[in-house]
Design brief:
The protein is mainly α. It is elongated and about 65 Å long. The mean pLDDT is 86. It folds into 2 domains: 73 residues; 31 residues. Bound molecules: zinc ion. The site of zinc ion (ZN) has 6 residues, from α2 and α4.
Amino acid sequence: MSEEIDSFQVPFLELSRLECSDVSALTSCYVDGELLEALKQKFEGHIRTCSICRELVAQTEFVVESASQIRDREIPTRVQLKLRETLKEQVGFDSPKLQTLRES
Ligand SMILES: [Zn+2]
């Protein structure tokens, strides 16, 4: 656990209960599994009774999950080619890889 995370989370730990705005500030830490144990319990206590925050957490989990799947996937050559051609046309960025992609 880094000190940076602690100093962000400590003020929330001192609250007797979390409000919706606190939960939304902590959601990404929670989804990443970085919440301090005591704070995690307060967090889960809030989302158990608040459907709005529960929905927010579910959506964030979905986005994080989807992003981690995309990261592992190779971008298709067709898409790379299209992207680089667009870059060349629109901003004049002539990627050395463009020729290679055209030949493949
Ligand atoms: Zn809430």
